[in-house]
Amino acid sequence: MKYVQSHENLDIPDGVTLEIKSRIVKVTGPRGTLSKNLRHIDVTFKKVSDKQVTITVHNGDRKHVAALRTVKSLIANLITGVTVGYKYKMRFVYAHFPINVNIIDSTTSTSGKAVEIRNFLGEKRVRNVPIPKGVEAEISTTQKDELVVFGNSLEEVSQTCADVQQICRVRNKDIRKFLDGIYVSAKGNIVEEL
């Protein structure tokens, strides 16, 4: 069954400007600028006012209409990123061999930095995860065995954390017994809400 017209409204907070040109969304806020290419999704944008945008799908089937909410969420994530940012905390879990993590200079990453992981399960292999541009990582000073990853783009921050977690997968052993690794322990914002 075709839905004749489906739409979602998106509110734009104060201090944020939203610019849409040929389905490339550019959001500017107090923390910087983020953009997202949405050309692959058939939706129309209509700026109702400076504070509201309507996203519409014409003659869409069920899956096409489901993409509508996805587009709204993607733009909402951009708005959150340029206003308060994203911060993920990762904890090192080990039973015997302590995991050593450092932030090093790297030529392979776009930002020039990488997360270096040593002594995982006592292995001599050194693991490196490049940190993308716009994302920063640091070893926590308040909490032992904690890595803090933060930035404006939710996709890049969460992908960096996923890469760190995936590079520390235990192979050829019973993962119920060997629970070692680096895991996301908390998700939040850089600018803490009062």
UniProtKB/TrEMBL annotation:
Q: Extract the Pfam families matched here.
A: Ribosomal_L6
Q: Which domain of life is it from?
A: Eukaryota
Residue ranges of every copy of the Large ribosomal subunit protein uL6 alpha-beta domain listed in the record: 12-85, 110-181
On whether NADP is a keyword of this UniProt record, the answer is: no
Q: Which GO terms describe its cellular component?
A: cytosolic large ribosomal subunit
Question: What Gene3D superfamilies has UniProt attached to this entry?
Answer: Ribosomal protein L6, alpha-beta domain
Biological processes per GO annotation: cytoplasmic translation
Q: Name one GO molecular function term.
A: rRNA binding
Q: Does the keyword Metal-binding apply?
A: no
Sorted keywords for this record are: Ribonucleoprotein, Ribosomal protein
User: From which residue to which does any coiled coil extend?
Assistant: none
Ranges that cross the membrane: none
Q: Which family does it belong to?
A: Belongs to the universal ribosomal protein uL6 family.
Q: What is this protein called?
A: Unnamed protein product
Q: From which organism does this entry originate?
A: Ambrosiozyma monospora
